[in-house]
Amino acid sequence: MNDLNLAPDTGLLETIEHETGPAPAWSVLWLHGLGADGNDFMPIVPELLRGGWPAIRFVFPHAPVRPVTINGGMRMRAWYDIAHQDFANRADEAGVEDSIARVEALIAREASRGVPASRLILAGFSQGGAITLAAGMRRKTPLAGLIALSTYLPAPHKAEAALASGAERQPLFMAHGRFDPVVPYQAGQQSATLLQRLGFAIDWRQYPMAHQVCQEEIHDLGHWMDSLFRGGPTAVDAPPRPPV
């Protein structure tokens, strides 16, 4: 295994990387939540891994530092500004677009390192999950899969217009805590329902937790990823679909 820190001298976001073997054939690009950084989800990598998986490069970027209105203008790592609690309009659209461009630059770097979009999974938690969903919807070249945890879709009223042709073919794992006080469960469920209506086949999961991840969720996510790596169906024990 190999851990790397890549400096932003290339103009890209600074990232922390963990390779599970030599010459990674797959990449997982994982976006952290508001106020965290790329170290946040590094510890779950060993818990996800399964025997027989290909060598994987896990890439954990640090979001830019910017003022966040809802937190009194405090500067912190954030993928976009948040002005208020209205989940339909809370995301700073210019910030979302900027972060999508930064994520696309990292996806392009993975392609230059031998991992095409068809072998790259884009994942995110909370605000990072919102960027995952927004970026995934706009992808003209589908990724191998999308993972969106404890999150919501920004600007849902513009979702249909933003959807790229074929983007709905990307497998999507969404999970949410039923007792989430930060991103309410209903916000995540409504986003999942909208994405399902747009054609996404969603593996939707709910857990008795707050704004966090839990062992059962990591276990289910590992099974879902295992199906992607092995080229099989991504459903885990025929999970319930969100209501339409």
CATH superfamily descriptor:
Alpha/Beta hydrolase fold, catalytic domain
CATH domain class: Alpha Beta
Low-confidence runs: 235-240
Helix vs. strand class: alpha/beta
Biggest β-sheet: count, sense, barrel? Answer: 8 strands, mixed
Distance between the termini: 43 Å
Question: Total number of helical segments?
Answer: 6
Identify the overall geometry. globular
Strand content: 15-25%
In a nutshell, what does this entry contain?
This protein is an alpha/beta fold.
Could you describe the 3D structure shown?
This protein has 244 residues and is α/β, with parallel strands linked by helices. The protein has one domain (2-230): Rossmann fold (3-Layer(aba) Sandwich), CATH 3.40.50.1820. It is built from six helices and ten strands, in the order E-E-E-H-E-E-E-H-E-H-E-H-E-H-E-H. The protein has helices at residues 45-48, 93-112, 127-137, 159-162, 185-197, 215-230, and strands at residues 2-6, 15-19, 26-31, 56-61, 65-68, 74-77, 120-125, 145-149, 172-177, 202-207. The strands form two sheets. It has an eight-stranded mixed β-sheet, with helices on both faces. A hairpin with an 8-residue loop joins strand 1 and strand 2. Helix 2 (93-112) crosses helix 3. The longest helix has 20 residues, at 93-112. The termini are far apart. The relative contact order is 0.13.
Give a quick set of tags describing it.
single chain; 244 residues; alpha/beta; Rossmann fold; eight-stranded mixed β-sheet; two-stranded antiparallel ribbon; 6 helices; 10 strands
